[in-house]
Amino acid sequence: MKKLISVGVALALLTMVVVPGAVAAQDIEPDTYSKIPFAIVGSGIVLVGQIVDAMGDTIDLPFDIVAITELVGPWTAEDLAWSVDMLAWGVNLFGELWPTLDEMLGIGYEDLGDVMVDVADGLRECWVDVCP
């Protein structure tokens, strides 16, 4: 019975530490569906920093982990996620140029350009109701 109570107390303490951190980490919201993985990783990095901060002096690190995670988390979710926009731009450019290349080289895959433009549009599909 004591072990069951100990487990319950441990879970309650863990919940008191993790849940506020998880809620605070949800401030990062992607603007397109394709940026969701970046937002998840960025939120996770921020959450780790908040958990370590909540643990206080139990972990003795030679550097300020919270300052690092507060810097790297948003960068991952916002600035690094910008690479998706560049990928979409490149895929769209390829889709626009493909019909000319296909005709010049006589390859015979005319529809590939339309597929690539559709992929680029999918990468830019809005996460929120109105794109910012």
Question: Can you give a write-up of this model?
Answer:
- α2 (36-55) packs antiparallel against α3.
- The chain is mostly helical and 132 residues long.
- It folds into 2 domains: 2-80, no CATH class; 83-123.
- The protein starts with a helix and ends in a 9-residue tail after the last helix.
- The model is unreliable at 19-25 (pLDDT under 50).
- The protein has helices at 2-25, 36-55, 65-79, 82-105, 112-123.
Alpha-beta content class = mainly alpha
Number of helices: 5
Biggest sheet statistics? none
Categorize the overall geometry.
elongated
Order of helices and strands: HHHHH
Low-confidence stretches: 19-25
Strand fraction equals under 5%
Q: How many E strands?
A: 0
Brief sketch in words of this structure:
The protein has 132 residues and is mostly helical.
Key phrases:
132 residues; mainly alpha; 5 helices; 0% strand
What's the SSE blueprint?
Blueprint: H1 2-25, H2 36-55, H3 65-79, H4 82-105, H5 112-123
Helix pairs in contact: 1-2, 2-3, 4-5
